[in-house]
From TrEMBL:
InterPro entries: Beta-PGM-like, HAD-like_sf, HAD-SF_hydro_IA, HAD_2, HAD_sf, PGP-like_dom2
Keywords: Carbohydrate metabolism, Hydrolase, Magnesium, Metal-binding
UniProt entry tagged with the keyword Transferase: no
CDD domains: HAD_BPGM-like
Protein name, UniProt field: HAD family hydrolase
Signal peptide stretch: none
Keyword GTP-binding: no
Provenance organism: Cellulomonas rhizosphaerae
Protein family (similarity comment): Belongs to the HAD-like hydrolase superfamily. CbbY/CbbZ/Gph/YieH family.
Pfam family, one: HAD_2
NCBIfam families in UniProt: HAD-SF-IA-v3 (TIGR01509)
Length: 227
C-alpha cells in the first residue's frame, strides 16, 4: 500500500500483448508462417515493426507482402495461431501476475486495453480474472495510436482518465495512452522506449509496485532512476 499522503490511482489500464503476456513471438511466428506459405520472406525485424499496430494494419501489411487472402482471413489465421499458443500456456511477463494480484488486493479497478481482438483478449481476461472492463481492437472505431481505446476504458470504468495509469510496451500504445491524458508507463520489451514528456520508463514489471503506481498517478515519479 502507498504512504498515507499518496492516493491510489483511480484505475490501472493495461495493454496485453508484450506488456502482460509475451505473445509477440507467437504473432511473429504466425506472420512468418503465413508469408512463407505464400512464397514470401518475413524476418524477425519485419515482425517487430508491427508490434502494437492494429490488426487491420498487420493484415494489410501481410497482404502487401504477398499473402493472397482476404484481410479478414489473415486476421482470423493470426488470432487462431496466437490464441492456441496462449491456451497451451499463458506466457506471463516477469512480475505481471504478482502485480495484478497486488492491485486486486489494494482494490484498484483495472481495464484491459488491447489492439488484439476479442477472440484473444476475452479468453486471456478470463484466465487473469481481474479486469473490470475490456477494450479490444474490434470494439473501437479508432485503434491505437489514437487515444480512443484508453478514453473508452476510463469512461466504462467511470473514472477520470487523468487519474488513471496506463501501462504499455509499444510506440503506438504509448502514443495512445499519452494522448488520452493518462499517466503512462512504458515497458521496454521488444521495442526501445524513447524518452517522452510525462512518460515513466521501466525495464520490466518487477520495477513497478502498488506504491510506485500511486506515485506515478500523483505525478511524483516522472523520472526513472538510471534510465
Amino acid at each position: 500500500m502507498p504512504p498515507a499522503n499518496l492516493e491510489l490511482p483511480d484505475a490501472v489500464l493495461w495493454d496485453m500483448d508484450g506488456t502482460l503476456i509475451n505473445t509477440e513471438p507467437l504473432w511473429i511466428a504466425g506472420e512468418t508462417a503465413l508469408v512463407s506459405a505464400h512464397g514470401g520472406m518475413w524476418t524477425h525485424e519485419d515482425g517487430l515493426g508491427l508490434v502494437g499496430n492494429p490488426m487491420a494494419v498487420a493484415a494489410q501489411t501481410l497482404a502487401d507482402r504477398g499473402v493472397d487472402l482476404p484481410l479478414d482471413e489473415i486476421v482470423d489465421f493470426l488470432n487462431a495461431r496466437v490464441a492456441a499458443g496462449v491456451a497451451a500456456s499463458t506466457p506471463w511477463q516477469p512480475g505481471a501476475r504478482e502485480l495484478l494480484d497486488a492491485l486486486v488486493a489494494a482494490g484498484v479497478p483495472m481495464a484491459l486495453v488491447t489492439s488484439s481482438y476479442r477472440v484473444l483478449s476475452e479468453p486471456f481476461a478470463a484466465v487473469a480474472g481481474c479486469f473490470d472492463v475490456i477494450v479490444s481492437g474490434d470494439t473501437v472505431t479508432n485503434a491505437k495510436p489514437d487515444p480512443e481505446p484508453y478514453l473508452a476504458a476510463a469512461e466504462l470504468l467511470g473514472v477520470p482518465i487523468e487519474r488513471c495509469v496506463a501501462v504499455e510496451d509499444s510506440r503506438s500504445g504509448i502514443t495512445s495512452a499519452l494522448a488520452s491524458g493518462a499517466r503512462t508507463v512504458g515497458v521496454e520489451v521488444f521495442q526501445p522506449v524513447e524518452p517522452r514528456p510525462g512518460l515513466v520508463r521501466v525495464a520490466d514489471l518487477t520495477e513497478l509496485s502498488v506504491e510506485r503506481l500511486a506515485r506515478i498517478a500523483a505525478g511524483a515519479d516522472l523520472v526513472s532512476p538510471a534510465r
